[in-house]
Design goal:
- With about 375 residues, this protein is α/β, with parallel strands linked by helices.
- Helices cover about 30% and strands about 15% of the residues.
- It is built from eleven helices and 13 strands.
- The protein is globular.
- Bound molecules: pyridoxal-5'-phosphate (PLP) and zinc ion (ZN).
- Pyridoxal-5'-phosphate (PLP) binds next to helix 7 and helix 11.
Length: about 375
Amino acid sequence: MNSGEPAIKEPCLVCFSCSKKESISSIKWRCECGSFFNVEHSPNMNFERDDNSLTGVWRYRDTIPINCGDAIISMGEGGTPLPQVDWLGRSVYVKLDMLFPTGSYKDRGATGMISRANHLGVEKVVEDSSGNAGCSVAAYCAACKIPCDIFVPASTSKAKLGQIDAYGATLRLIDGSREDVAAAAGKAAMSGSAYYASHVWDPFFFQGTKTFAYEVYEQLQRRAPDTVVIPTGNGTLLIGAYLGFEELHRHGLISKIPRLIAVQADRCAPIHLKHVPRANPQPWKKTAAEGIAIAKPVRIDQILSYVEATAGEVVAVDEQSIVDARNLAGEKGLFIEPTSATALAALEMISFAPDETVVVPLTGHGLK
Ligand SMILES: *Cc1c(COP(=O)(O)O)cnc(C)c1O
Ligand SMILES: [Zn+2]
């Protein structure tokens, strides 16, 4: 090994708050102190595989610190296109992450998380979601025949409910806030009979979403973009993007981690509020961007630390601009859900240098 390379670490889980370590195969969904785990490891960043039997997300399986072997549950997800479009006079790259088996990028995370659960022999799964994560977990559990219960707000769009049902998952509709839904799922998990495969808590979800960064890097001819603009609620894509770019940077493959811009809907913008505190904040309201309407993001401090580490920003967009951006996207042949349109709407609120390379993930399909 060259002396300049990072030291090899035994993979483990490490608590974000108290730094307590757990085995990489632990099925605990949170630390005794109440905080969440992250994965600590030294990924193998050699992307040149001679065996191309797995494409997309699992092309990067050497970077994922558990050897799932035959337990990998894959539907060929990932490897999504990165075309350039003109957006109000600026050329941006859009990553078509609505083109996943279930119609959102959540499949990146679910394939990682459910493959590991399958590898560990989990017999039952619970998850809570405002929609798309539930669709992904239900699909990947169906693919490996692990029964799952998906807790969702009673207000979730009919298309997403129908989709979760189609995968044979048990739907648990909960009246109340998104936090009430999470509490109900957490309680079911706490009773000990099921594994809490939570896209928010389970650090292996982020080991899947980090492949977003690897794909962008390879598609840009082994360069990092300058800026990535990401719809953010619980931060499952933003955190994954940071992890992927950070690993590329740590291994000397890119010279800097892109600036990460977290985009929220101003009707539900707790990350924005913490980043830019203001007097008398209004109570949150219902927004068309249902996928990121998260009033109490568990990983808010982690999200803000990554935004700050990359000299990024948090931007809040209004309802009208979300609708306008969704319509304009349609006129360019891109059919996306309102949640995804927030990132395009944010482009008008961010200052860019003229030659900046900007990537915007289009996270969810308009059909839902
Ligand atoms: C989940 C999701 C996001 C990002 O949400 P996080 O809560 O930050 O993980 C963005 N767009 C769509 C369509 C989603 O489903
Ligand atoms: Zn802890």
